[in-house]
Specification:
binds nicotinamide-adenine-dinucleotide; alpha/beta; Isopropylmalate Dehydrogenase; globular; single chain; 11 helices; ten-stranded mixed sheet; 2 domains
Amino acid sequence: MSSRAPKSTYELVLLPGDGIGIEVIAEARALLEQIGPAIGVGFNLDEVPCGGKFYLDHGSRDWPEGAEEKCAAADAILLGAVGWAGPDGAPVTMPGGKMAGWSPVIGNRMKLDLYANVRPVRCLPGTKHGISGQFQSVWRPDKVDMVIIRENTEGLYSGIGERTAERATDVRVITQRASERVIRKAFEISRERGKGAPADGKKRVTCIVKHNVLHGCRLFLDVFRTVGKDFPDIEQDVAIVDAFAMFVLTQPERYDVCVTTNMFGDILTDLASVLQGGMGMAVGCNVGDDHAMFEPIHGSAPPLAGKDRANPMAMLLATGEALGWLGKRYADDRLVRAKKAIDQAVASIVVRGEPLTGDLGGSAPRSAVATAIRDEALRQLSH
Ligand SMILES: NC(=O)c1ccc[n+]([C@@H]2O[C@H](COP(=O)([O-])OP(=O)(O)OC[C@H]3O[C@@H](n4cnc5c(N)ncnc54)[C@H](O)[C@@H]3O)[C@@H](O)[C@H]2O)c1
């Protein structure tokens, strides 16, 4: 990433989407509006409505005309979540079969070439894992600290396929070029993290494939082997996707950085969010060479919408990731400080044990958690 001079004002596009996406984006906005003055940085926040509800209301598009250009011109994008049900109760789709909300999510990933979806998986001290309604500390924070990176522009989400009454196909495209750059990113992140896997401190990149069955995975693995030669200080590791789904929960300490194809990564990172305390804690950074979009990995959670119960932590951590990315890109230490303050604020509230939303075993409303995080982040920045 090329370094430029810090800016006085950064242009951010906010894409609220649907359901709890709208609620958590409002918390991201409030955080940015308070953090900006505290660090002497301006944020121009341009909110663009989008998603399934937008499509239902407007009939032909899942975001307004000009939205794509706004995203392309932004310094960074923050996305809430999309996905809404139509009058028949089924998720709204557009002509051609794409989900309404495709443009801001998958469209942006493809059109802005956000080829790496980087998902940090950390368990913060104090996290209680909710399983069958019981909350207890299952995974040890010192054993869960990995990054899962998924290819973000092709694979099974390439949008190629068709459906008739009797038969449906979804074509999984895996190219050498897209594999090469995301795998290289995985090795670079392992080197940058420097700390390796919690179990043994070894820098290790695990390539998750189903190469015993799938052509695309054979290609992905061949590219992994080739790129890995440029990183002799990093151990190459291979896992078959179905076995990895077990190992990531039973021995998370083995993993430093993992890299995989689009849909495998989509599923595995939701699974891995369990190690973090659930979807309300998990962040996705969609990163290319020139653009980036940051989001919680959760969806619009319609049953939670409008109840002030969604955990805002993932969205606020994603906001911190955006500031960290911008801080690096523009050599702006103010933003890097702000990112650290947000991370520390979330960590201190989790360890304190309140206020927390229901998914983490608490009973506080979203707004109380978000306010506590803002106040704590500002306190950190005032030191
Ligand atoms: N990137 C995106 O915008 C994205 C990602 C995934 C799903 N979706 C869409 O979201 C809609 C709902 O999908 P879903 O139900 O499969 O997934 P979801 O992530 O919305 O919800 C899954 C489960 O996690 C819980 N959950 C999610 N976020 C939470 C939060 N912040 N705090 C507390 N609990 C939280 C929900 O209550 C639910 O039990 C669908 O339309 C789907 O297509 C969008």
